[in-house]
C-alpha cells in the first residue's frame, strides 16, 4: 500500500467517524448544548470575563496561579499563531461542512482550513499548562478540553482526525513551554547556588 492509498484510507475512515458523531449521535439536547460549548470562547461576556480572570490571577493569585497565567498566555499565543498561520497552511484541508453532503451543521462553517483544529490545539495547550500549575483542578481542565473537541465534530465543522491531531499538537506545545520553564528554573537555581557558594 503506497502513501496515497494510506491517505485515502484515513480519509475514508475519518469521514465515517465524522458522520457517526455528526449524525448517529444527534439528539435534541446536544443540538442545544454543543453549539454553545463550541462557540463559548467567542461570546463577548466570556472574553471580558477571561481577561478579567487573567488579570486577577496575575495580580492577586498565589505563586502557582500567577505562574499558570503567565505560562498560559505564552503557550496559547504560540499554539494559536503556529497552528493558524503555519500548520493549517501546510495541509490546507477543507472543512467537512465545505465538501461533504448532508452535514448536520449547527454553527457557521468558517472560512479557515480544518486540520488541525485550532480549538483543539489551544484547549489542550491550556489544559496541560493549567493541570501542571493547578493540579487540584486538573480533571476539570482535561474534561472541558475534551468536551470542546467533541463539540467541534458534533456541530459539523471538523473531522475527528482534526481534533485528535489538534489535541496532540496542543500537548506537545504546552509540554514544550512547561519543559522550557522547568529548564529555566533549574538553570536559575543552579546559578544562584553557585553564586552563593562563591560569595560565602
List the helices and strands and how they pair.
Blueprint: H1 3-24, H2 28-38, H3 44-60, H4 63-91, H5 96-99, H6 118-133, H7 138-154, H8 160-199
Notable characteristics:
mainly alpha; 8 helices; 200 residues; Vanadium-containing Chloroperoxidase, domain 1
Spatial separation of the terminal alpha carbons: 68 Å
Please state the CA-atom Rg, rounded to the nearest Å. 20 Å
The largest β sheet comes out as: none
* CATH topology assignment: Vanadium-containing Chloroperoxidase, domain 1
* Morphology: globular
Query: So how many helices?
Result: 8
Average pLDDT works out at: 85
Which CATH architecture would you pick? Answer: Up-down Bundle
The helix/strand order is HHHHHHHH
Per DSSP, what share of the residues sits in E-state strands of 2 or more residues? under 5%
Portion in helices = over 70%
What does the oligomeric state look like here?
Answer: single chain
Structural class: mainly alpha
Number of strands: 0
Unreliable segments of 5+ consecutive residues: none
Query: How many domains would you count in the coordinates?
Result: 1
CATH superfamily: Phosphatidic acid phosphatase type 2/haloperoxidase
Report the top-level CATH class: Mainly Alpha
Task: Describe this structure as you would to a colleague.
The structure is a single chain. This protein has helices spanning 3-24, 28-38, 44-60, 63-91, 96-99, 118-133, 138-154, 160-199. α7 (138-154) packs antiparallel against α8 (160-199). It has one domain (3-199): Vanadium-containing Chloroperoxidase, domain 1 (Up-down Bundle), CATH 1.20.144.10. It is built from 8 helices and no strands. It is an all-alpha fold.
